[in-house]
Design brief:
By secondary structure, this protein is of the alpha/beta class. It has a 7-stranded mixed beta sheet, with helices on both faces. The chain has a two-stranded antiparallel ribbon with strand order 2-3. A hairpin with a 2-residue loop joins strand 2 and strand 3. It is globular. The mean pLDDT is 91.
């Protein structure tokens, strides 16, 4: 593990399409936030959660950082982490992608040498919330937030991020399991079914 690396689980969204309380929804008998934290701990020596309200996550065994701009999206959360923690680089992980493959996340980190940011192409395009960012991105990210930007896509383009191609992604996650987002009740049912069929949580890495 790289000692300067911090994994940040993004758990600030309201999850309205799922009926609210997204981080506490369960898959395989475990909360989504706990599954994300387990994945983060496999890869990073420091792990924290970025949320709108720290009190909501008081039971978690890790630090929780309160977003300086609650409700303003993941780009603001990234800026908050760099401003309010000593992290020199950050691996962002969404709380609502419970089938993230460790091999994909490791590959993102392997590609980070000499880069300002690394992301990957999912089935729907660039995935900025499953990505690595260096502190060198902070000034650009702050400017974007001040200009009202909410999403990290523009940041990735402006810093010249390395983007894993679909072909590169297929080598480590051929079935695109990492990109199954739980936004609606039927998404959670689908993820539950896939996890059970493949025994994804039967081993520590869920590989």
């Amino acid at each position: 593990m790289r000692p300067e690396l911090t994994a940040v689980v993004l758990a600030g969204g309201p999850g309205r399409r799922l009926g609210g309380g997204k981080p506490w929804r369960t898959l395989g008998g475990r909360r989504l936030v706990d599954l994300a934290l387990d994945r983060a701990r496999e890869l990073c020596p420091q792990v924290l959660v970025a949320a709108a309200d720290c009190a909501d996550f008081a039971d978690l065994p890790c630090p929780v950082v309160a977003d300086r701009w609650p409700g303003q999206g993941p780009l603001a959360a990234l800026v908050t982490v760099f401003l309010d923690t000593p992290a020199t680089s950050v691996l962002l992980l969404p709380v609502d992608a419970p089938l993230m493959r460790p091999a994909l996340l490791r590959r993102i980190l392997e590609l980070s040498d000499g880069q300002k940011a690394v992301c990957c192409q999912g089935p729907g395009g660039m995935e900025p919330l499953m990505a690595w960012y260096s502190r060198e991105c902070l000034a650009c990210a702050q400017k974007l937030v001040q200009d009202g930007e909410r999403r990290p896509h523009r940041l990735l383009r402006q810093v010249g991020a390395y983007t894993m191609s679909r072909e590169e992604v297929a080598l480590v996650d051929p079935d695109d399991l990492s990109f199954i987002n739980v936004n609606f009740p039927q998404d959670l049912e689908r993820a539950e079914r896939i996890a059970a069929e493949r025994g994804l949580f039967d081993t520590p890495e869920g590989a």
